[in-house]
């Protein structure tokens, strides 16, 4: 992520300032994801460690530990998809042979398709969450945990990924318009 000193915001035009707004949002999403993923991993490790000690030392088991860690793991996987997309995962069969602005146009088309998939998961995930809320189901070994909270990860993670993809598309459009350097070094 490129850090721009605070005083340069006032020297920029509206479009550059809008780009910095997108960069600020993606930067905040990055920090949120990092904290969330580290915290959930730490919680899982501690819970599993305590479960092992309780089972083998005290001959007593924590009834909710397996299911709770399973749900946290699901959250880590879905949030990890957005975290992994920071560096734009791609297969360069075609895009590796295209240079300059044509490569950017191809990247934008691919990102628009990717955005469509993210939005599909976001909105269909919201429908699943609403359905689970109406059913009122709770986790079997964690009676205070509503199942819809587990399913909420899909629209949350894919909504955050949609924001990231939109920011990448906007950055590519700015490069095409001549306000940034192309990936191959040309302007």
TrEMBL record:
User: What are the GO BP annotations of this UniProt entry?
Assistant: C4-dicarboxylate transport
Q: How does it sit in the membrane?
A: Multi-pass membrane protein
The regions listed as transmembrane in this protein's record are 35-58, 104-123, 143-167
Location of the Tripartite ATP-independent periplasmic transporters DctQ component domain? 45-173
Localization in the cell: Cell inner membrane
Pfam annotation, one family? DctQ
Q: From which residue to which does the signal peptide run? A: none
A GO cellular component term found in this entry reads: plasma membrane
Which InterPro entries has this protein been placed in? DctQ (IPR055348), TRAP_DctQ (IPR007387)
Q: What does the UniProt keyword field contain?
A: Cell inner membrane, Cell membrane, Membrane, Transmembrane, Transmembrane helix, Transport
The GO terms describing molecular function are: transmembrane transporter activity
- Decide whether keyword DNA damage is in the record: no
Question: Family per UniProt?
Answer: Belongs to the TRAP transporter small permease family.
Q: What is this protein called?
A: TRAP transporter small permease
């Amino acid at each position: 992520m490129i850090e721009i000193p605070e005083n340069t915001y006032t020297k920029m035009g509206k479009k550059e300032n809008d780009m910095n707004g997108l960069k600020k949002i993606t930067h905040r999403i990055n920090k949120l994801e990092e904290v969330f993923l580290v915290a959930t991993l730490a919680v899982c490790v501690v819970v599993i460690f305590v479960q092992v000690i309780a089972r083998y030392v005290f001959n007593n088991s924590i009834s909710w530990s397996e299911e709770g860690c399973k749900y946290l793991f699901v959250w880590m996987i879905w949030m990890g998809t957005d975290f992994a997309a920071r560096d734009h995962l791609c297969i360069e069969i075609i895009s590796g042979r295209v240079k300059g602005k044509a490569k950017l146009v191809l990247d934008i088309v691919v990102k628009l398709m990717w955005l469509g998939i993210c939005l599909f998961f976001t909105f269909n995930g919201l429908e699943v969450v609403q359905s689970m809320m109406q059913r009122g189901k709770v986790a079997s070994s964690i009676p205070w945990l509503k199942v819809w909270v587990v399913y909420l990860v899909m629209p949350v993670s894919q909504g955050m990924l949609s924001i990231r993809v939109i920011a990448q598309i906007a950055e590519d459009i700015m490069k095409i318009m001549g306000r940034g350097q192309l990936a191959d070094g040309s302007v």
